[in-house]
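Lecture notes, unit on binding sites. The following record was shown on slide 14. It pairs a sequence with guanosine-5'-diphosphate.
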Amino acid sequence: MFESLGNKLQDILERLQREKTLTDAQVKAAMREIRMALLEADVNFGVAKEFVARVSEKAVGQEVLGSLDAGQMVVKLVHDELIQTLGGESKQPTLKHEGNVVFMVGLQGAGKTTSTGKLAKFYKEKGRRVLLVAADTQRPAAREQLRTLGQQVGVPVLEVANGETPQQTKQRLQEALQKDFRDLVIVDTAGRLQIDEALMDQLADLQRELQPTETLLVVDAMTGQEALSVAKTFDERVHLSGLIITKMDGDARGGAALSARFVTGKPIYFAGTSEKLTGLEPFYPDRVAGRILGMGDVLGLIERAQQADLQNMETKKAEDFDLEDLLTQLRQIRKMGPLGDLIKLIPGMSRALPEGFSIDEKQIQKIDSMISSMTLKERRNPKILNASRRKRIAAGAGTQVSEINKLVKMHEQMKDMMKMLQRMSGGKGMGALGA
Ligand code: GDP
């Protein structure tokens, strides 16, 4: 997401930065282009207009024109304004010590049930005792989906019965909580393909009974501006406290995410970034702005590394770096997410890579299976890999001996490279390489 918008904005800003000083006309022309780029990304008209007006006003007010680093200053103004448009400071649902009830609402297909499972995982990992409630009284399949997610995350799921009234649900919930204390209840409500009055009434009734502390709307980034008119309707009936925008990993143009705060007045709490349970991230306007402008997201990268629990790779000397170490590192890095996505978090990278760039995950899988077919002794000491061993390993990994030869050679080259880099950095181990 944001790829096309990001590229356009970066182009415009790069041109400005190349100029020594800027004239009024140049800034005006750039602002017109920025406005076009925003509109093409499906950003709400009012948002685009205000965005450009604010940047222009500041550019004039701060006497950017004629100053030596005028281009730089405009980049900063655009960056700051992007952050503001996305919501400024990052906001999260307010959770009390106990008695938290989070209400999840949204249209069918938006990703509501998936996001409910992701939230359960997110908060469980933060030490919360979570109970999920599958509150769709009409669709058993929806309840079953949540039951499966509950099992995967390892949290209990209370399922409402067909045709159960909100009063009955409340009663059963209270009973369940008396038996098994939980400090966070997340309620997955019914969804429909379109807004309908009956659904809204039903949600409002259940909301009145359960008195949620937060009501979160799940919207699909792919539906663009439509998502925001849906949000307004939901807000009128069930007063939203915040939004979760899903499918940010897709190729949506980004307009919904960029306009959400302005159009709905609600903060984006979380972004859905994959179909998997791990694909939920707190939404940080400053990091997203950085990604759009190709400035990277170093903090995001570090966080993913921490989540993946990257072990200390610092102490290994190049000559001791064996195939077992290579395998461990490959697996740890893969835990951080798709490699193509990770690379784009590195500042400047998204710009430096050719369009449509991707890393062949299959190749990495292949290396993994080749090393996995070796005995520990072989991994620790690749020198013993004679012809018959290579043949056995190739058969085990379902590949050719020539591939094993390539792997052994690649490992040798890696060691040479590491040795050289370690010499250059004064022999401080791999940490000095930024590994
Ligand atoms: P619900 O009807 O709103 O409960 O929607 P579901 O939770 O069943 O999700 C609908 C579809 O969207 C499923 O195929 C999900 O796997 C998918 N989905 C949900 N969130 C995301 C996301 O953040 N990224 C991607 N790529 N797919 C998602």
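Take-home: The mean pLDDT is 83.
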